[in-house]
Amino acid sequence: MAELSATSVQVKKSNNVIAWLAPLLCLILGYIIWRFFIGADSHFTTPDPSGGFWPDQQGATSNLYKMYEGGILVPLLIGCLLMVITFTIERLLTVVKARGAGSNADFVRRIQYQLANKDVEGALAECDRQKGSVGNVMKAGLRKYKEMISVTELSTEQKVLAIQKEVEEATSLELPMLEKNLVFLSTIASVATLFGLLGTVTGMIIAFGKLGNSAGADAARGLSQGISEALYNTALGIGTSALAIVMYNVFTTSIDSITYGIDESGFTLTQSFASLYK
């Protein structure tokens, strides 16, 4: 029995620098925003110019600057929010590119028309125009399709299996590129809320600790202020988590749509070959 020819699919080289560089830069930028923008001396009535890493600024002039008094977990939460924004933009660019130049459904129909007329070159030209993940997988399958037409040593079933294998290998290279870095969004969706709650709990502990050292109106005012500051952590954590969840679901839905197009393209190739080259 003749052996199937080797695959022509080439492994894509990927340098995922953003996966380790972006989180570090976002956390550093989160601290810079918290310390030097939100926590600038000019934003408080009683600043602490010699405070260093974490000055004891008092008397915020607006609600935005009160976020500084939420504690050291605030820059971590700001960093998480920046990570969500960064990986949202990065995944958006990738998914838009993966969708190709037009509708994948229309593209598959054009390929079906070309193959029905036995115009493989025309189908390959359509792939070059479409691009994207579906176009790349279809092109790899069409190359094997074209090769199998002239092969006489194999049966039709073996040729169809060879085309199917080529499509599967091309698919296995495309899908990881689409799903890459989504783990950051799913992770932040879980941990941002926990960080927010942790900041709130620690803030409440500090607020009630100060309550024991005060009395009367000063105690009530200090407690209400402490609770307000602590809840900034919860608000920032929940907001970041909600954004991460929404964007994660948007991207997974888009990837599912592209995956469906890839599956449809593979089915089109194998069924066309089986029916036209018996």
Please name the defining characteristics of this protein:
9 helices; mainly alpha; single chain; 2% strand; rod-shaped; two-stranded antiparallel sheet; 2 strands; 278 residues
Secondary-structure blueprint of this entry?
Blueprint: H1 18-38, E1 44-46, E2 58-60, H2 63-66, H3 73-99, H4 104-116, H5 120-130, H6 132-149, H7 156-179, H8 182-211, H9 216-276
Commentary on this structure:
The protein has 278 residues and is mostly helical. Helix content is 75%, strand content 2%. A two-stranded antiparallel sheet has the order 1-2. It is rod-shaped, with a radius of gyration of 28 Å. The two termini are 18 Å apart.
| Helicity level | over 70%
Tally of separate helices: 9
- Decide which structural class fits the backbone: mainly alpha
Mean pLDDT comes to 87
Strand content: under 5%
Kindly report the spatial arrangement of strands forming the biggest sheet: 1-2
Main sheet characteristics:
2 strands, antiparallel
Q: Could you list the spans in which at least 5 consecutive residues all have pLDDT below 50? A: none
Radius of gyration: 28 Å
